[in-house]
Amino acid sequence: MTTARTPETVTVLRDVRPWGGEPVDLHVADGRIAAVTPHDPAAPQSSGTSSGTATDDGVVDGRGLLALPGLVNAHAHVDKSWWGRPWVSYGGEATTQGRIAHERAHRDELGIPGVDVTLTVLREFVRHGTTAIRTHVDVDLGLRLRGIEVVREALATLGGAVHAEIVAFPQDGVLRRPGVLDLLDAAAAAGAEHVGGLDPASIDRDPVGQLDGLFAIAERRGVGIDVHLHDGGDLGAFQVELMIDRTLRAGLQGKVNVAHGFAVGEVPPSRQADLVAAMGEAGITMTTVAPIGAAPLPVHALRAAGVAVGLGTDGIRDLWAPYGTGDLLALTTQLARLSRFRHDDELVTAARVATSDAARFVGRDVHDLVVGAPADVVLVDAENVPDAVVRAPRRALVVAGGRVVARDGDVLV
Ligand SMILES: [Zn+2]
Q1: Vertex 291, ends 116 and 261: CA angle to 5°?
Q2: pLDDT tens, 340-358?
Q3: How confident is the model at residue 50 (pLDDT cuts 50, 70, 90)?
Q4: Ion ligand 1 — residues with CB under 5 Å?
Q5: Interval between CA 222 and ligand 1 midpoint (Å)
Q6: pTM across the whole model
């Protein structure tokens, strides 16, 4: 395992254009944005800043580049990739159960979960400007909580370059594997911020049972719930309704997320409108991985109803599929295209989904280029935000917690 280098600390990130606006200087203290002042081109510039390298006093020249908040990957699986390893041909069947079985048969030989592979994935995220993640981590009868320990060790190695919340994820089912519910409870007691679920109907064949189990843990431990829901159509919508009922009854508004939720994009318009409104009233959120081939989520309607939408890479290059990269901005382009966004304000919305509006998915009150926010900044050479979303240009500089963690494609942690 390679150990992390100590990144440069930033005191001033000068001459950047937040969200494509006028040039400013971002002043950083204690890892947070302490002040935002208009950039004065006539002000004396410290030597050595022309390449974007911090001087001894921590001044970094942003060269007038477009600044966005650090990207937020709201649905990742950093414990189960083979990124950076020799090619692994997919050999499983094309069903959820087939993928689960394939993964369980081959993960040991790939060293999954392992600190090294997790670090490789995290660095790929950092390279592309992601500074905060919500990652699902497998919890099952074989691994128990070892995957979570692995992920925590990898995150610690990067010294805070990636802020993370963990979902204890029952990839192999909950009730159909007696003992898993207890493991989820133990994970929550040990600090996992959320307990996960998986297709309560089609995997456990007991949607009420799985959801009651998850909600009991959430109430007992004060954690959130984040359920992978691939079940589509009426079956999926029915499970969303079960989650709405339980969220309201338990007073867990704002703490329950539906991941994927293909059903929300699939049901007829009138049913969709009722479902979206009810989700908004219950404070339920959604995360999508912008999958090609699925009915797109009604992003505008969800947001208008108060349903926060987050974007994530899902697993990248893992035993479920060889697809995916660590580039969340490229995935933002995909979300925009799948959502048929064309207008500038829609493209800005896509960028907000991938950054500032995703604060809640990583346990932050604010994640933006404003005073008081964590100093997580991505610089790109783009004319404006729509241009950045459409082209996903190379990340020129990535700052996390007030430290330079990547520059021009080189990861510095
Ligand atoms: Zn997932």
Answers
A1: 100
A2: 999 999 999 999 999 999 9
A3: very low
A4: 314
A5: 22
A6: 0.96
